[in-house]
Amino acid sequence: MTQRAVSSGGLPTSPQVIELLGAEFERAGYEIEDVVIDTVARPARIVIVADGDTALTLDAVAELSRAASQLLDGVPEVTAAYVLEVTSPGVDRPLTDPKHFRRARTRKVALELADGTTLTGRVAAVEDGLLHVVVRDRSDWSVRQLNLDDIVKAVVQVDFSAPGKRELELVDQTGRGADQ
After folding, report:
1. Over 50: is that where the pLDDT of 31 sits?
2. Do the beta carbons of residue 22 and residue 95 sit within 8 Å?
3. Among residues of the chain, what percentage have pLDDT more than 70?
4. Which residues share a beta bridge with 44?
5. What's the CA gap between 161 and 40, in Å, rounded?
6. Which part of the chain is the Ribosome maturation factor RimP N-terminal domain (predicted)?
7. Distance between CA atoms of residues 18 and 4, nearest Å
8. DSSP state of 107
9. pLDDT over 50 at 8, yes or no
10. How many CB atoms within 10 Å of residue 94?
């Protein structure tokens, strides 16, 4: 977090922050998923949630924070004190877009389907509107294809156990050459 003490006054809106910082984040390989501005906090808090095809590292957060700070500080209308935070969406973020599933490749996810059934498996690939998930099929593993439109809810599961060899083989086989 970077704290900038500036004179009292205004803060940018979320769309203004996205417009100002979007290109800089894209150059670094990330996109701004959300901007939350808390004007009740003292000093005010600007939280930028970023995600990309590669994980947001601490070094990337530091670099993005510095760049965002410089750009925000260069806007004359930004005259209020604020604390800036650049963060990732976190594991509790619902997976709602194909890119979210693509970025969760190899991760274990819990799925709730439109027919009311649930399924837990490891994301192998996303292509042509289908999610390929490695699931336990009795004593072995198999790949299930699910239409993304049939998924009502999806979240990454915190998984401390390493996946088995066969499970990873299926993830790798399915993920090769997929339109990700």
Report:
1. yes
2. no
3. 91
4. 82
5. 41
6. 25-92
7. 19
8. S
9. no
10. 11
Distance separating alpha carbons of residues 38 and 1, to the nearest angstrom:
15
pLDDT tens for each residue of 134-178: 998 888 899 999 999 999 999 999 888 778 888 888 888 776 544
| 99, amino acid identity | K
Q: Quick one: what percent of the chain has pLDDT higher than 90?
A: 62
Q: Where are the alpha helices (DSSP H) in 6-115?
A: 14-27, 58-73, 98-103
- Which residues neighbour 71 within 8 Å (Cβ) at sequence distance 6 or greater? 20, 21, 24
The count of residues in the chain is 180
Helix (H, G, I), strand (E, B) or coil at 152: strand
